[in-house]
Amino acid sequence: MNFMASKQPENSLLGPEADSQRTLYPYVTGTSVVALKYKDGILMAADMGGSYGSTLRYKNVERMKAIGKHSLLGASGEISDFQEILRYLDDLILYDNMWDDGNSLGPKEVHNYLTRVMYNRRNKFNPLWNSLVLGGIKNGQKYLGTVSMIGVNFEDDHVATGFGNHLARPILRQEWHENLSFEDGVKLLEKCMRVLLYRDRSAINKLQIAKITEEGMTISQPYSLKTYWEFSAFENPTQGAVGSW
Amino acid sequence: MDLNMDLNAPHSMGTTIIGVTYNGGVVLGADSRTSTGMYVANRASDKITQLTDNVYVCRSGSAADSQLVSDYVRYFLHQHTIQLGQPATVKVAANLIRLISYNNKNMLETGLIVGGWDKYEGGKIYGIPLGGTLIEQPFAIGGSGSSYLYGFFDQAWKEGMTKDEAEQLVVKAVSLAIARDGASGGVVRTVVINSEGVTRNFYPGDKLQLWHEELEPQNSLLDILNSPSPEPMNI
User: pLDDT at residue A3 above 60?
Assistant: First the structure.
């Protein structure tokens, strides 16, 4: 039954956007996701914002979800496309479980599946407008990878999407090391998230941190970070040069 | 008509629509203005459309797109209800709206708020903005008039309101949006849905509260001129 799928355009009175073969633009978007490997598994952080252009419209969007038993998916970009990806993954995990063969898809396999989906959509000029972070641990092997809307994919000890690429990754490059404790991992992620909060217009001060270990996935309750504004240079910035900013 | 819109900004849509949950059900509200460019094509439209006995949808954006989407979903829900043997849930209705909105995102320009009551989850509101994201919320606002209401709701919304508090909030909010949004106007319509059923209400424009710099409507200047001058004060 295909009547609810998009119709093939015969004549585009609506302009180039109506041609479903062309690239769309995003409407409701999530901002950065940051993740790192630590001693027991993966830690991932994302805020709960869904922006609508420049408006911070939705403030309770969960942008990280558990996939099967071993993986954790975080997404930035168009939320409706993320919701659709979750549906694809539901089917994938269902089929995996229906084999009932004792084997289950690990994070590496899920990452590969997502890479194929994203790259094939990109080739049809109809991308899923997301940057994804896929982390997990299976049989003691930690895995952390990322896929972009054009199919660029790689794995690393720490990854970030969006603004996080510019603001969080330099911090992670300096301060990440092998076998971080849970506390140190959380503090490092919070340091990244605080910088993003200061400097990313689409960031909101309500975030969650998710952890995935051999035991399973947990996601924290939403919480807010304290911020610091009491620099003397902030209190009277134009004292030395009246009229400046 | 403006064909060179900034592709990175979302389209603003004529209308103000609101959906609010309260302890026992939901209240949906909307203005009644349908515009074609600068002309008001219909000053008393009904933007709150029935999908089933217990689920309604507030429509914003393109009138044609929102009407078609509602018509399709009403049709599917009708069949679904027959097959299921009991009333459809609000979640199912919202997901059907999402399915059409998402799969036709390139061609549709409509933001919808689905609200209703079912015996499993009680009163629920689902927002489905442009693009087809489905988001369950304790309250939702939409349409071009909603820009003026984010601050209002941040301050005025609270959990666990009564039916009357919720309805008064909705009426006040639509009225405030109408005061500032050129694409919203006319009357305020509300629909209350709970376990007892559905109630439609109508608040004509001239019966709404006056806001800043709005004046009490008069029949004519002549009435003002002919009215008795005020009594001199006694100091």
Answer: no
Name the residue among A14, A54, A80 with its Cβ closest to that of B102: A80
Q: What is the distance of C-alpha A217 from the center of its chain?
A: 16
The answer for residues whose C-beta is within 8 angstroms of residue A122's C-beta and 6 or more apart is A149, A150, A151
pLDDT tens digits for range B144-169: 999 999 999 999 999 999 999 999 99
Instruction: Indicate yes or no: CB of B135 within 8 angstroms of CB of A58.
Output: yes
B211: left (phi over 0), alpha (psi -120 to 50) or beta: beta
Distance between CA A89 and CA A87 in Å, rounded? 5
Which tokens sit at A76? 């930035």
What is the rounded CA–CA span in Å between residue B185 and residue B98? 27
Supply the ipTM of this predicted assembly.
Answer: 0.83
With a CB-CB cutoff of 8 Å, which residues 141-160 of chain B face chain A?
147, 150
Whether residue A7 and residue B107 make contact (CB cut-off 8 A), yes or no, is: yes
Phi/psi zone of residue A228: left (φ > 0), alpha (ψ -120 to 50 degrees), beta? beta
Cα A122 from Cα A107, distance rounded (Å):
22
Which amino acid, A27? Y
Chain B nearest-CA distance from A76, in A, is 14
CA atoms within 13 A on the CB side of A151: 13
Residue A102's region, left for phi above 0, alpha for psi from -120 to 50, else beta, is left
